[in-house]
Amino acid sequence: MVTAEQLAFSYSPATPVLENVSFHIQPGKIAAIAGRNGAGKSTLLRLCNALLKPSSGRLLVHGIDTRETSASKLARHVATVFQTPEQQIFASRVLDEISFGPKQLGCTRAQIQEAAASAMQRVGLSGLAESHPLDLSHAGRRFVTLASALAMKPRLLLLDEPQQGLDAAAIQKLETILRAEKAAGVTILFTCHDMDFIGRNADDLLVFGGGRLLRSGPVSDVFSDETLIQQAGLKLPDSLRMAQMLSLPPALSCEQLIDLWRSR
After folding, report:
1. Is the pTM of this model over 0.90?
2. What is the pLDDT of residue 135?
3. What is the DSSP letter of 53?
4. How many CA atoms lie less than 13 Å away from 219 in the CB half-sphere?
């Protein structure tokens, strides 16, 4: 679904942001991008939706070379939720915000209504269609932007720090939505500083440092490389550290840890 081949990008020739990045994300997988601030995580998302173009190399999304298409055309396949909801929201009604994407795709009125209603129902906003998005809580605004992306019915969903600022209940709702989208065949790529969130939700992990991809692969394999984790300035998920302390096999969630402890 997403393939990078010796991808490089710089905002100016003297300061490369990404260099010689190659990876492949299978369709229907959830992949996380981790690394220190300034490692190029958000830049990679903007390359995936064609808001930015590679300086060299290439990036294929659903077989489309992002160098040869516009962000508006790629939006038929890719939807993005940015890190700060207030920078993405512009409409005065939740319904209008969520309906905007399908309208731009040329959907019929009935299709727009169906897409918006379905997206609002999936994120728990069905009763707030007439509300102003900026009157909602931070979590409510984040779910408005997520519903706007889901209404586009994307094949690739890009999320920049989706769990940031959410309480436990909102994170649980977000994780339920991610699992449902994965089950529907949507590929999800998200940036994140929360290793516990990554452990619970991602299939694959891409670790960046100094503008380079240090390692990619299944989450459990990447987290097993403790030298890499230290080099990238990350930490292991709490469940994985606890499993190590208890001499148990790797556990990427509390549920896995409990099951391993009971079956020891």
Report:
1. yes
2. 96
3. -
4. 24
Q: What is the mean pLDDT of residues 209-219?
A: 94
Phi, psi angle pair for 55, to nearest 5°: -75, -35
Instruction: Return the exposure string of 79-95: e unless at least 16 CB atoms fall within 10 Å of the residue's CB, then b.
Output: bbbbbebeebbebeebb
CA 11 to chain centre: 23
Q: Which two tokens stand for residue 183?
A: 């089950």
Q: What are the CA-CA distances from residue 157 to residues 51, 62, 153, 214 (Å)?
A: 15, 12, 9, 23
Residue pointed to by tokens 């209603």: 117
* Cα 142 from chain centre: 13
* Cα distance between residue 182 and residue 196, in whole Å: 19
pLDDT at residue number 160:
96
Direct distance between the N- and C-terminal alpha carbons of the chain, in angstroms, rounded to an integer: 38
Residue closest to 95 by CA, chosen among 111, 117, 69: 117
Angle (nearest 5°) at CA 155 between 150 and 159: 60
So what's the pLDDT on residue 226?
A: 87
In sequence order, which residues have a C-beta less than 8 Å from that of residue 168 and are 6 or more positions away?
none
At 15, the pLDDT band (50, 70, 90 cuts) reads confident
Predicted local distance difference test score (pLDDT) of residue 179: 96
Helix ranges (H only) for the chain are 41-48, 71-74, 94-104, 109-123, 138-150, 168-183, 195-201, 219-223, 226-231, 238-245, 254-262
User: How confident is the prediction for the chain on average, in pLDDT?
Assistant: 94
Q: Are 228 and 222 in contact (CB under 8 A)?
A: yes
Dihedral sign of CA atoms 157, 160, 161, 167 in order:
negative
Q: What is d(CA 17, CA 39) in angstroms, rounded to the nearest whole number?
A: 7
Rounded CA-CA distance 260/264 in Å is 6
